[in-house]
């Protein structure tokens, strides 16, 4: 049955009655907060690549990422399913049918942030999920970007967002100004026809713009992601840290909001198994491997690069772009 797409419809999907409540929900999901779109995020010396998720119900999870995000199947076998956009692999689903669900207070994935090529693409996607009555968990304007939040069927957080033109970002020295404000839903929806959905396949330029992780300790996480991997700090709070390459607002975010003092992750549980950071320059990739080894993180060879394990057991792969 067709539904009338109104702001109220979107708020109901997000389980709220006002955009202020939706922004508050997004604050819990994201924290107190040249080229538009993935062109910038994906042009930096180090950028996000793909993720591997351990999942209990492979078929259900594959259908979800296809139907909700529009990802296409790149490969499928008994070992799992690889999904992507424009032929680029983004999500690897690895079946673990007997696995227990990873608790929300454990270290691990907070959300995977899928970056739309444009605000217009975000608008088309928003009409799509509204008309399919996909449950949402929040909306927010983060000053540098506009974001919508939801969870997959096994509780893995997802952000779908579009960047503002980087010329509009405000920097205070080496810190970028980010916040959590009311999202201009009407302004986004004005960019497309809300009477029908014309979103089926993810835009070819959709990429993972950033990874947001739950960690047990901010200083310890910075030792790994900033000092060993070599990302730059772009924003810092007592309970959260945001890091990037090439002055993007953030490629990796770390928080202890629900996971303070968390111990090592249970590798037999569902959730994030690994994620990759792509390195464009082979010389930089080689230097990064040496840097990780000197820091004591024992890089192991994988296809196109190497991987190390963060202090809580999440595998991070640095691979050639």
TrEMBL record:
Coiled coil: none
Spans of repeat TPR: 202-235
InterPro entries assigned to the protein according to its UniProt record, in alphabetical order: Glyas_Bleomycin-R_OHBP_Dase, Glyas_Fos-R_dOase_dom, TAT_signal, TPR_rpt, VOC_core
Any matching Pfam family: Glyoxalase
Stretches assigned to the VOC domain: 47-163, 207-321
Residues annotated as signal peptide: 1-22
Keywords for the protein's UniProt record, in alphabetical order: Signal, TPR repeat
Protein name, entry field: VOC family protein
Source species of the chain: Bosea vestrisii
